[in-house]
Amino acid sequence: MLVSFFIALSFTASAQSNAVDRYYHADSLLNSGKTFEAYKIYKDILPGLNYKDTLYEYTAWYYTYAVSLLENDCRMKEDFTNSLKYGLEAYNFIRANKYIYDKEYAEREQWMIKNIIVSYFGLNKLDEAEKYKAILYKGYKNNTLPTGIEQYFNFDFFKLDGKNVWGYEWFQELPEDRNSMSFTKVVYYVYSTNEDGSDKDQLYRFHVLMFHQDPINPKFDYILEKQQEIEGKTFYYSYYEYNYKKDIDYLKLRSDVKKHIQNKIPWSSMRYYNR
Questions:
Q1: Which domains does the chain have, with CATH numbers?
Q2: Sign of the dihedral defined by the CA atoms of residues 210, 214, 215, 220, in that order
Q3: Residues with Cβ < 8 Å from 124, sequence gap 6 or more?
Q4: Is the CA virtual torsion 46, 49, 52, 54 positive or negative?
Q5: What is the rounded CA–CA span in Å between residue 152 and residue 140?
Q6: pTM of the predicted model, to two decimals?
Q7: What is the pLDDT of residue 156?
Q8: 193, 204 Cβ separation under 8 angstroms
């Protein structure tokens, strides 16, 4: 019995030492930009660690960081199948481990939900995206969302004609009094890009703008409006032929935005004004 105990103890110490060595190897890989290789090692050694061990805390932290980097990289490349895979993996892991860390770590859960929504939109799986949007809307109602997504969130992203296009949605709902305020539900921001594909300059943006009309018998609730800064002035182009109901058809909206970016729109639909 005593011999068996010492054998087991020796095995445990050996396994722990191996895990430490592999952790430091993964750390060096991560620092040298080999994120996927590091991610695989972190993921492999986590199941063998005691969650009360400091090594588990460090490994779990950097595993979360690595898988988040992979998710972001795939999403920015519009590889939404893999960004969704990594996003769901990160989301489930963060939910299971957020009690170990501070508030900042726990807030990653909401940020990853936002990323998952983008991936589902990119895959045209809007029903699945709506399930995660509902979680954010609940957080908005309960005032539990972190700074940065407490009023609006990124829900769509695509590249077109050398431009980055970001769709953002505001949590606030349509006011009952349509003449009480100016209200935008969705904005698509259009950016030029640097050589590495990152955002450079904002070229213009498309607002899904509340239409001021009789709310008792409305024909539609929003119109599409282009806004652009030129020499310090904001110019507005309203497209009355491009309009939407309260429950926005997001696939149609995305298609309409793409048409406008590619200038595949009739001039008759545009009304320009400077206010």
A1: 15-140 (1.25.40), 151-275 (no CATH)
A2: negative
A3: 251
A4: negative
A5: 9
A6: 0.89
A7: 98
A8: no
Query: Residues, the chain, total?
Result: 275
* Owner of token pair 């182009």: 237
- Estimate to the nearest angstrom the gap between the alpha carbon of 97 and the chain centroid: 21
Is 214 exposed, middle or buried, given 0-12, 13-18 or 19+ CB atoms closer than 10 A?
exposed
Model pLDDT, residue 88: 98
Average pLDDT, the chain: 89
